Amino acid sequence: MPKIYTYIAVAIIVFFWLVRNQTIRQFFKSFNHKDFTRNPKGSNLTKEQYRALLVGLINGEQLMAYCDTLETGVSRERLAEGLRDWWGVTDRGSAFELLNSMMEEGHRVYFNVVLDFVKQYPDDGIRTKMIMQEYPDNERVAEFADNLAACIKEYKDDPEIPYSETDLAKGILGWDTGRMVNLARMCYEVGYITQEEAWDLIGSAYEATAENFPDWRSFAISYVIGRGMW
């Protein structure tokens, strides 16, 4: 996995600290520093909404979305194309089907199974064979296992990459909730869900994140591991 995504994960931790520290924030403003893209029209989010939106900050950077409004700043055409081509979302029904699925399962439904196979079968060929015997109709399990095994092997001695036993044991809820926040924003902007529905979904993602991670660093690590498996 490219290290750029680890750096983005670290950036979210730094960013959250900065927005809570008025002195440091003003220092950076004096240099016209710009960590993430903000809506030029300004933001009227409450503190609770802003905090909830931060769950999608890493994924939002990949989308090049605004970090401080429900609106992403990405064209409606591009959002609709991305939802259709990457997610199979074309209307209200498919939007809620996807969003509810991500909240209830997401890629978490694969992770523990994949991790068990990676631990039991370090040899790629044997692991794939065993997976296909048990999951003959689900090639994604083998693909995810290959990805995760490659990440663990490549970065096992790299202190910057979070693939320790402790980190892996925490799972990838951060990956699922991080993506879900931005999917809710995208579905809102193309008109598949209402603003109220979008905030309800984002709020649920934040609540799940807050309940499962003691700090933003552990959340960001969960996101990086999930992306590595993906």
Descriptive overview:
With 230 residues, the chain is mainly alpha-helical. 69% of the residues lie in helices and 0% in strands. It contains 13 helices and no strands. The chain has helices at residues 4-20, 22-30, 47-53, 57-63, 76-87, 92-104, 108-120, 124-134, 139-154, 165-169, 173-189, 195-212, 216-229. Helix 11 crosses helix 13. The longest helix is centred in the last third of the chain and has 18 residues, at 195-212. The termini are close together. Mean pLDDT is 87; it is low at 14-34.
A few lines on this structure:
This protein has helices at residues 4-20, 22-30, 47-53, 57-63, 76-87, 92-104, 108-120, 124-134, 139-154, 165-169, 173-189, 195-212, 216-229. The protein is an all-alpha fold and 230 residues long.
Shape: globular
Structural class: mainly alpha
* Series of secondary-structure elements, N-terminal to C-terminal: HHHHHHHHHHHHH
Rg over C-alpha atoms, rounded to the nearest angstrom: 18 Å
* Helical proportion, percent range: 55-70%
- Figure out the total of helices: 13
Unreliable segments of 5+ consecutive residues: 14-34
State mean pLDDT (0 to 100 scale): 87
Number of strands: 0
Between the first and last Cα atoms, what is the distance in angstroms?
10 Å
